[in-house]
Amino acid sequence: xxxxxxxxxxxxxxxxxxxxxxxxxxxxxxxxxxxxxxxxxxxxxxxxxxxxxxxxxxxxxxxxxxxxxxxxxxxxxxxxxxxxxxxxxxxxxxxxxxxxxxxxxxxxxxxxxxxxxxxxxxxxxxxxxxxxxxxxxxxxxxxxxxxxxxx
Length: 151
Hints:
Elements: H1 6-21, H2 23-130, H3 136-142
């Protein structure tokens, strides 16, 4: 290729310079667009943060309400069950007391029978060992109907 003439080279440079002359305006326009884009993104992020915060507060309020409702329900159920349990325990305590009284009475009755038997045996031993006859009064005391202890 033959070397370009100086005039051609200047012409080529002038064309290139003309195309580059619009470049600062284009860069400035692009800079404005970037600044606008950054402002829009900042606003959108701020809006998203506010929405997230509001949703979080709403969620917390709903959860607290649900937990409070469940807590009250649970407390009510527990109080009801506690009342039922107290009633059952009171009934069982009364039943136990009655059974204990009956057992005490039976034990006393058996003790009286055994006591009478011991007295009668002492009287027999005394009669046998000392040769004494029992008085009619002591016979009446010891010769009553014999009761055997219930088992």
